[in-house]
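Limitations

Structures in this collection are predictions, not experimental determinations, and the ligand pose is part of the prediction. Treat each record accordingly. The example that follows, with magnesium ion as the small molecule, is included so readers can see exactly what is and is not provided: the inputs are given verbatim, and the output is the predicted complex.
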Amino acid sequence: MSNADILNDVFERFVANTRIFRDREVLRHDHLPERLPHREEQVRSLGETVAPVLRGARISNILIYGKTGTGKTAVTKYVLNYLEVKAKEFNAPVRFCYVNCRMAGSEYRVFASLCQSLGISVPFTGLSVGEVFDRFRTGLDASAIFFIVVLDEVDALIKVRGDGLLYELTRMNETLCKSKVSIVGISNDLRLKELFDPRVLSSLSEEEVVFRPYDADELRNILFERSKPAFLDNALSEGAVSLCAALAAAEHGDARRALDLLRVAGEVAERRGATVVLEENVREAEKHIEHNRVVEALKNLTLHSKLVVLSVSHMGKVSSNGVITGEIHEVYNELCQEVGVPPLTQRRLGTLVNELDSMGLLNAKVVSMGRYGRTKKIKLSVPHSVIKNVFTADARLGHLADYEPKCLHMIASGPN
Ligand code: ADP
Ligand code: MG
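Predicted complex:
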């Protein structure tokens, strides 16, 4: 078959094949469903906390926390969208602004988003954070509204920038005359006491709403609900849904993961030209998703972490039972020279190894060396073929994918 024939076949089949999905978009992360089963308690509690604003009272700050995929973002958006509708009905001057702090990336961008939602113009860069904050305060006070600021994934921002922004926001009402601001902070990280300064934590958590993980039964209900508009009648086996729910529950009750499994399983079945999504398609979907996760993680590493992974990969070819940091450092030094960048110290390299270990790309195991004490043996936890594919496509490191480090045979023949 020629390339055109292959593609023609793929496209024709795709178009003819509306046998699995009715509307796959419904399964995407950012789709906001109309019903959120098993979150009635959180919807009610958040609703009760924000309701007073309809009668002209400032509402308490709220801290929402729970692991990823437990419905925090969906529930918050759902409740505040509804509040906005009701506020119009009652003529209450209520507005809210949703900002994802991780995506915004800096305090400047968070405040810039807040300004934008109030129609205050702020240049993309150029002002100090303090200046943007002042514009926000002045503009907000002039609007004479109750402003609810939703800071989603606020933990990500705090870890990088500290909680100065939150501190300023929690103090802001003291200097506002005509407007009031309330904060809804959402955190995926449960270690709140470590993350926040005690003063910030206490003013932010006037109310708390906890999202615990879903269990397998709950995930199954959620998936059934979401799958009705997503899949054609009878295109989804009960076994497939249950398996998606069970796999996601075994991790940490993450609805996002369950939905991903279901969507990808549907795509696998579709590509096979099947009419029903089966358990085996879910198994395959699991492999796909894991593979993509690893590839994305590798592609997004910093240059030095990539060089460390490459070093371990090259060494794995000569010593199968793991290598020690000192040996990695030798190969890594050589690779740095090849690329023309100054190498990091062995100690910094040790930190990178630990990071890569916690990402699941390397595996570092402490082993006893008898009277020589203990040492860390480091191995690759990803197949060499994947490393090779990813790095061959890397503009800067492509030539290192097949490179043979000169120091390797010395290490391989040395005492081990
Ligand atoms: P979090 O913000 O806690 O990480 P999200 O609110 O983003 O989680 O939820 C992850 C995905 O799962 C989203 O697509 C969301 O629509 C869906 N989801 C979460 N909880 C429910 C639920 N109870 N019913 C239906 N879909 C849900
Ligand atoms: Mg979220």
